Each structure stands twice: as structure tokens, then as C-alpha cells.
């Protein structure tokens, strides 16, 4: 040990294999070794937790599903009401503008020669000409609106809807009935003057 070491009050470095260094490890003076990390364990659901989750989901479905079905039904009925009213409004405006007789009726196909009055959910044609009865011969096709597979739509007259050049539908007026799932959802009333009004009956029976 030299004088400088004594003055500074420090001990000289200990060799790696010095007996004192080995003793330091035995008496706990050496730095602790790094702790071993435990392996990650993935925890799953227990049977009780799974059953509780299923029960909660079942309650939510029973509460939400009927409301969702009613929402879808209302949208389908609203779409059909808009389709019928659009077709009739186009026909009436065309009759007034062209000063011609304009007819609206459902058809089984675009090139059909006659109207299919039993099902107004079929495609709707707007034609120009004074067709006789349900025949579409000697008429000019102006517009066709696609059909749907939605609610059942009927008209309480056994004739097409025909607008005069004045926009009136005298003699061809009537009421549309829109049904979905055996329930009467809406009525569309066509007056002699060619005007429309909608009546909602969400809980009435179609029969």
C-alpha cells in the first residue's frame, strides 16, 4: 500500500481472484443478480363468465331485435310509398306539360303488352296514349320505375291510373294499400283531381 492510497483513504483494487473478493460475494456485499422474469400466462374465460356473457347477449338481442325489425319494416314501407308517389307525380306533370293522356300501371316485363293490375310492386310504366283497358298497345313508353320484392301493394280499382291533360284522374282515382307482414302499414289516396295523400296505419290488419 503506498502513501497516496493511505492519504486518500481508499483501498487498492482487489484482483479478480483475490480471496477477499470471493468473500464479498459470500457475505452478500456483491451486486445482486438480475431477477428471472416469470413467463407470461394467458388467462381465458371461466365457464361461469362465459355463461354470464351469453345470458347478457341473449337479453340484449331480445330487446334490440324487435326494434330493429320495426325500423326495417318502416323503411321498406316508406320506400314503396315514395316509389308510388314518384311515378304518379311524374305521370301527372307529364300530362299537364304535354297536354296528353298519360297512363301508369304495373307490368311483368319492360316489353309487356298489358298491365298486371293485381300487383303494384311490379315495375311501373308511364306511357303516353289512350290505351283500352289493360292493353298497352299503341302507346309510347316514357318512363319505367323498377319493381321491388318488398311489401305487397294493391289498388282498389281494376284499371290503370290515367291522367287527363288537365292533370285530373277522374274515373281512375282510388286507394293504394301497402302491406308488410300481414299488417297494413300505409294507404295512398288518389283523388279525382290527381292529388295524393298518405295515411299511416302501422297496427291495422291487412285482411
Could you provide a short overview of the structure?
By secondary structure, this protein is an alpha+beta fold.
Overview of the structural elements:
This protein starts with a helix and ends with a strand. It is about 30% helix and about 25% strand. It has a domain at about 65-200: minor pseudopilin epsh domain (minor pseudopilin epsh fold, 3-Layer(bab) Sandwich), CATH 3.55.40.10. Strand 6 (about 175-180) and strand 7 form a beta hairpin. A four-stranded antiparallel β-sheet has the order 3-2-1-5, covered by helices on one side. Mean pLDDT is about 80; it is low at about 5-10 and about 20-25. By secondary structure, it is of the alpha+beta class. Its main location: membrane.
Q: How would a crystallographer describe the biggest sheet?
A: 4 strands, antiparallel
Number of helical runs? 3
Please name the fourth-level CATH homologous superfamily of the domain at 65-201: minor pseudopilin epsh domain
The CATH topology assignment of the domain at 65-201 is minor pseudopilin epsh fold
Number of strands: 8
Give a quick set of tags describing it.
32% helix; N_methyl_site; alpha+beta; 207 residues; membrane; disordered N terminus; 23% strand; cell membrane; elongated; single chain; 3 helices; minor pseudopilin epsh fold
List the SSEs and their pairings:
Layout: H1 3-8, H2 19-26, H3 47-98, E1 102-106, E2 124-128, E3 140-145, E4 152-155, E5 161-163, E6 174-180, E7 183-190, E8 196-205
Antiparallel strand pairs: 1-2, 1-5, 2-3, 4-6, 6-7, 7-8
Amino acid at each position: 500500500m503506498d502513501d497516496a492510497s493511505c492519504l486518500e483513504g481508499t483501498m487498492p483494487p482487489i484482483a479478480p481472484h483475490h480471496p477477499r473478493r470471493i468473500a464479498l460475494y459470500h457475505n452478500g456485499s456483491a451486486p445482486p443478480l438480475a431477477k428471472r422474469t416469470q413467463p407470461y400466462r394467458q388467462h381465458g374465460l371461466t365457464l361461469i363468465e362465459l355463461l354470464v356473457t351469453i345470458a347478457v347477449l341473449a337479453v340484449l338481442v331480445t330487446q334490440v331485435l324487435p326494434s330493429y325489425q320495426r325500423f326495417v319494416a318502416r323503411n321498406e314501407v316508406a320506400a314503396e310509398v315514395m316509389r308510388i308517389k314518384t311515378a304518379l307525380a311524374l305521370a301527372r306533370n307529364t300530362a299537364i306539360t304535354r297536354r296528353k293522356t298519360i297512363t301508369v300501371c304495373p307490368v311483368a316485363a319492360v316489353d309487356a303488352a298489358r298491365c298486371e293490375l293485381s300487383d303494384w310492386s311490379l315495375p311501373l310504366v308511364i306511357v303516353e296514349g289512350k290505351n283500352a283497358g289493360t292493353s298497352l298497345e299503341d302507346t309510347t313508353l316514357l318512363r319505367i320505375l323498377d319493381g321491388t320484392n318488398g311489401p305487397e301493394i294493391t289498388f282498389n280499382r281494376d284499371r290503370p291510373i290515367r291522367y287527363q291533360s288537365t292533370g285530373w284522374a277522374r274515373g281512375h282515382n282510388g286507394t293504394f294499400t301497402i302491406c308488410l307482414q300481414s299488417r297494413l302499414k300505409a294507404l295512398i289516396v288518389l283523388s279525382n283531381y290527381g292529388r295524393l295523400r298518405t295515411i299511416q296505419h302501422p297496427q291495422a290488419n291487412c285482411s
